[in-house]
Specification:
By secondary structure, the chain is α+β, with helices and mostly antiparallel strands. The chain contains ten helices and seven strands. It has a seven-stranded mixed sheet, sandwiched between helices. The longest helix is centred in the N-terminal third of the chain and has 23 residues. The chain is elongated and about 70 Å long.
Length: 254
């Protein structure tokens, strides 16, 4: 007689939750058709190899399954990296990291740098000058820096505004700020495919969301169409921020 216990229920629920999470990731990355194809192939493989016990076709599909795991890792490397980043960024995991590394003294926020960013964004917003500023935190953004022009200069309001001036060759790219210094400008960012992003928002906002999904960076956006200021962090987008909101947010996050 078939023995069905509490462990089997937990096993089924765990598999169901795993498939649901994979479904959400595939839908967000517009790979839902690929996910459906994988599920169909898996069902056919079970029937061929386990139910009907077709030896020749079953052996071929067994080999495809073993190679297919490697192919899926290569095909969905961005989604897999995002999954493990989300796991590592969870509050409980972050608390465990602090416990393992010991308590560290809180660093004082450089308010001069914060105010330079806030004033520059407000000025650019009034002039409807588009800007995308990425503030590096714990996760290094060296790969993003390599896509742009290295600057490595002290952060200042005037330099921020000059880089994003409409006739500047670095106007369309993203600026990366690290340790209160402008590391690079004109950088290329990954673009988010999240369907929840409002349709009226442009490529700058999607790029800001993309980098906030793949790292712990803060992305500040000044809209070229409306002059409004937005901030993306932890995969969430905050719109229509005032100078006080931006200052408060940067002070907390930095």
């Amino acid at each position: 007689m078939f023995d069905f216990g509490i462990k089997d229920i937990i096993d089924i629920l765990a598999v169901a939750l795993g498939l649901y999470y994979i479904y959400r990731v595939m839908r967000a990355s517009r790979s839902l058709n690929v996910f459906g194809g994988i599920i169909m192939f898996f069902i056919v493989w079970i029937f061929v190899s386990r139910v009907f016990e077709m030896r020749l076709l079953g052996a071929i599909m067994d080999n495809l399954m073993s190679v297919g795991v490697i192919a899926l890792i290569i095909l969905f490397q961005d989604e897999i990296r995002k999954f493990f980043y989300n796991v590592g960024a969870h509050q409980n995991i972050s608390a465990l990291k602090k416990l393992l590394h010991g308590s560290k003294k809180e660093k004082n926020v450089d308010m001069e740098s914060v105010m330079a960013i806030v004033r520059a964004c407000m000025n650019m917003g009034r002039g409807k000058v588009g800007a995308l500023i990425i503030i590096e935190r714990n996760i290094p953004l060296d790969d993003i820096v390599e896509t742009g022009e290295r600057i490595d200069s002290r952060l200042s309001q005037r330099l921020l505004e000059n880089i994003f001036f409409k006739n500047s060759p670095l106007h369309d790219g993203a600026m990366v700020i690290s340790k209160q210094r402008i590391k690079a400008a004109g950088c290329i960012l990954p673009v988010s495919h999240d369907d929840s992003i409002p349709k009226e928002l442009g490529l700058r906002h999607r790029a800001a969301m993309g980098i906030s999904e793949e790292s712990d960076a803060i992305a500040v956006v000044v809209s070229e169409e409306t002059g409004r200021i937005s901030v993306a962090s932890h995969g969430k987008l905050q719109l229509r921020l005032s100078a006080e909101d931006l200052e408060s947010l940067l002070t907390q996050e930095m």
